Amino acid sequence: MSNDAAMPAEQPSDPLKSVATAMSSAAEAMRDGASDAAAKVQQVLPATSEFVSRFVYSSCYFISYGVVFPTLFLAHVIPGGAPVALGLTDGASAACDGVKELRARKAAQSRSGDGQESATLAEEGLEALDSV
User: Fold this and answer.
1) What's the distance, CA 123 to chain centroid?
2) What is the C-alpha separation between 68 and 93, in angstroms, rounded?
3) Which among 13, 19, 39, 75 could disulfide-bond with 81, CB atoms 3.0 to 4.6 Å apart, if both were Cys?
4) pLDDT tens figures, 34-79
């Protein structure tokens, strides 16, 4: 028998180098996977946001239409219902003005960078509603 059979197959010169190479390729694969996942999220997020926004808008629109239209219809059909219709339209106009004012305050705060808490803004909104 020869000594060739007793010798193991050729091994890498440095086992730590092979471990470092394996760790490096694993880290690179994880970085690639993370960047792929981030890219997919960036693609899906606008579509999801648009769907949710459209759903909320449509739901609110149809609910408000379903409430306001029959009320105004009855207010115009019933004799003497004009004050009811005027009160509803004035109230809707005041609500729109209130929302515009809150949005303007929020925009001014974000531009100034004061960093006030949203709780303060909510309190101001509740105070505005109490004054109505």
Assistant:
1) 23
2) 13
3) 75
4) 777 777 777 777 878 888 889 999 998 888 888 888 887 887 787 7
Residues with Cβ within 8 Å of residue 105, at least 6 apart in sequence: 121, 124
Q: Give the DSSP letter of residue 2.
A: -
For residue 11, the surrounding DSSP H or E stretch is none
CA distance 61 to 53: 12
What is the C-alpha to C-alpha distance for residues 4 and 9, in angstroms, rounded to an integer? 10
What's the CA gap between 127 and 131, in Å, rounded?
Answer: 6
Q: Which amino acid, one-letter code, is at 85?
A: A
For the chain, the distance separating the N- and C-terminal CA atoms, rounded to the nearest angstrom, is 105
Tell the residue number behind the tokens 């190479």, with chain if given: 21
Instruction: Tell me the per-residue pLDDT of 111-123, one tens digit each, with 9 for 90 and over.
Output: 876 555 555 666 6
Between CA 117 and CA 123 the distance in angstroms is 10
What CA–CA distance (Å, rounded) separates 130 from 96? 16
